Amino acid sequence: MGRPARCVAALAAAGALAGCANAPKPMYHWGGYQRQVYQFLNGETGDPNQQLILLQAEADKARAAGAALPPGFRAHLAMLHLRLGRYDEARELVIAEKTAFPESATYMDFVLKSMGTKGS
User: Fold this and answer.
1) Domain total in the chain
2) Does a structural domain hold residue 14?
3) CA–CA separation, 83 vs 65, rounded Å?
4) What string of DSSP letters covers 91-114?
5) What is the crossing angle of helices 73-83 and 87-100, to 10°?
6) Picking from 1-5, 6-10, 19-23, 113-117, which range would have the lowest pLDDT averaged per residue?
7) The domain containing residue 78 runs over which residues?
8) CB contact at 8 A, 52 and 80
9) Which of 8, 94, 100, 108 has the most beta carbons within 10 angstroms of its beta carbon?
């Protein structure tokens, strides 16, 4: 390989490495959230308490990393709390989802209305 070819190859490698170093930080901390939702919706994990523990650990990791929770995270937690009869916690999480993602307001308002006055 000639000298010019080696220089081009070295520059290409340096550029590739520099691109990796400047990779953008993810917008949200997804962690195991998607896997947990998938398993729950497919009936692979039937215990809402266990799922709450796992998702709370993901929320703690996000908080420690200074990362935001992804869309739907709080709403999924709310659904788990509803299954356990914890209506006040569920309501708080639905409101938190609505606050974090204003574009979900119409649906979150529907969820709140569907919950009615249980637990209030």
Assistant:
1) 1
2) no
3) 30
4) HHHHHHHHHH-GGGHHHHHHHHHH
5) 170
6) 6-10
7) 29-115
8) yes
9) 94
